[in-house]
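Bit of a strange request maybe. I'm writing a small parser for C-alpha cell strings and I need a real example to test against, not something I typed by hand. Could someone generate the C-alpha cells for this chain?
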Amino acid sequence: MPYLIPPRTPLTPEQVERGFDYLLALQMGGGAAVAGRAEADPGLAFVLLRLAEDIIWPATAVDGEAELSADSFALDEVGCALLSALRDWARDSPTTAVPGIARSIIRFVENVIPDPDDHGDTRATLAAMRDEHLALAHAMHSAPGAHR
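Reply from user aminoacidic:
Good idea to test on real output. This should exercise your parser:
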C-alpha cells in the first residue's frame, strides 16, 4: 500500500525554522543540545514528520519520467515504509518520536541526499535545505489567498 501524502497546508516559515533549528542543533551538538525541546514544543513531532515527508518522499518516490526498474519500485517501497513508521511513531508517542524522526532525517540526508557543494558536510546540506524550505514557505504564505 503506497504512502500517499494527502493534500495539506504548507509549513509556515516559523515551523520550518523550528524544525531545522532542531535538526541542526542535534547534528552539531548531539542529544544534549536538544534536551527538553520535545517536551517544551509539543508540535515539534508534527513539524519534523512534515519535513521528513518533504525530504524523503521526493528522493524515494518512483519518477514517472525516469527509466523504471525493480530498484525504482524497491526504493519507493522503502520510502513508503520509512515514512509510515515515522508517522505511526509521531502519532503514538510525539515526545519520544522527535529525536528519532530527527535522527532518521539526518541519517537519510547523510546517506542519500548529495551535498550541494560536494564537501560531505551534512550540516551544510541541512542548512541549504533549510534555506530552500524557508523560501518555499515564505512564498506559499505570502501568496494571495494563502493559508495563514
